[in-house]
Amino acid sequence: MFDISHMPVLVKIAHMAELIDSVAKANHQVLGPIINDVMQFHSCAIPTISMHDYLEHVAKFVCLENDLLLAMLVYIDCITCVQNHRPAFAPSPFNIHFMALAAIVVAHKFNSDIFFNNTQYSK
Predict the structure, then answer these.
(1) d(CA 82, CA 85)
(2) Which of the four, 54, 62, 100, 116, has the lowest number of CB atoms within 10 Å?
(3) For residue range 27-64, what is the model confidence (pLDDT) as tens digits?
(4) Which residues contact 14 (CB under 8 A, 6 or more apart)?
């Protein structure tokens, strides 16, 4: 059984990063590079930092608790529901870091009583 309520945060981050990476890589293999339909979430090159290291870095500045991590996955899933109509929204190694950060910011602002301004999240 997978019980996240008793897991340390770093273990949860490792599981989330693995899941997000696997979805992004699978989409990238199926869809290939999307050249003509680039969105604001796309970077010019695949970031060199792994999703695991990226989430650990974000966790230094934002408290990544259960509700935030689950909401992040729900928001990324909602974004990917659009991929049938516009494949550029599909998570890929080119955009998953930006999608994850956007999902974290929205989840944190929605679920927390106290949240930061956008400058704090950009660190």
Answers:
(1) 6
(2) 116
(3) 777 766 655 555 666 677 788 899 999 999 988 888 88
(4) 52
